[in-house]
Amino acid sequence: LVEGNYEQGEVVRIAERVQQKFSLPFDLNGHVIYSSASIGILHASDQHLTAEEMMRDADTAMYQAKRAGKARHEVFDEQMHLAAKETLQLETDLRRAVENGEIYAMYQPIFSLTTGEILGIEALTRWMHPTLGKIAPARFINIAEEIGTIDALGEYILERTCREIGPILTAMSPEHDLTLSVNLSCRQFGQPKLAENVMRILETTHFPANRLKLEITESIFFEYQTKAIEMLNQIREFGIEIDIDDFGTGYSNLGYLIRLPVSTLKIDRSFVSPIDAEGRNTEIVKTVLALARNLGLKTVAEGIETEHQLRALKE
Ligand code: MG
Ligand code: MG
Hints:
Layout: H1 8-22, E1 26-28, E2 31-33, E3 39-41, H2 51-67, E4 73-75, H3 78-97, E5 103-111, E6 118-129, E7 133-135, H4 137-147, H5 150-171, E8 179-183, H6 194-205, E9 212-217, H7 219-237, E10 241-247, H8 256-259, E11 264-267, H9 269-272, H10 283-295, E12 298-301, H11 307-314
């Protein structure tokens, strides 16, 4: 608490002094400890009359500082309050979204660039909110990860898509070996029974394991290391393929590629979108293709939306 008349800039300088102190290591029973502090600052005003209100908003600013990368300080503003309120509402609604039937899948085709034939489909999770309408996955997946409902949500979407697509696979003639790709959140690997649960879903839905592909992102290796390798090997043994989604946007250490049982690299759309009418900006795509070829992996390009992108990628 900074009491009395103070100049607003002074508070920021105090925060910086606190952080400066934290940047020095300290001794704890002979161990050298490093720490840091994320600081939320609230300027006193007539809008904050109780200690609870002050703590709440200082807290909001502190979480903002943490999200911005930790060891930072943020000053609370009204915009933060509105954003925090909105997120809180979404959190509450998301807890009931599955049972209310608001979560569903849309399917995106995966084509062969050689034959034009559909090789598979990717299930994309969508949330139709009863009053706010469609909420983008970029918004609600993060929330589900934060409030810990991602396991239930991920398993629900896997089960639902297996049920929806299973009968289509059965109805198709056997020479079409269409696959279903389902995205897994990295956080789901924090759940020790993940592999077991995936297997149970395949059994109850009678979905063939060799037609399922699970998409994971590079960050999984960064977060779970050897545990992730074990779990992925277990999943791979069921006959399920593992694809790396959004390849090239996450973890920059490529060493994981030879340690994970991966079959496909999905080239992130941020490398496909810049390909222009003259076929320029294909350097990263070319590099990923060469990398995949050398590792004996397949490739899928995400988000091909124009003729010239299609042409450049075919080439
Ligand atoms: Mg995906
Ligand atoms: Mg993607």
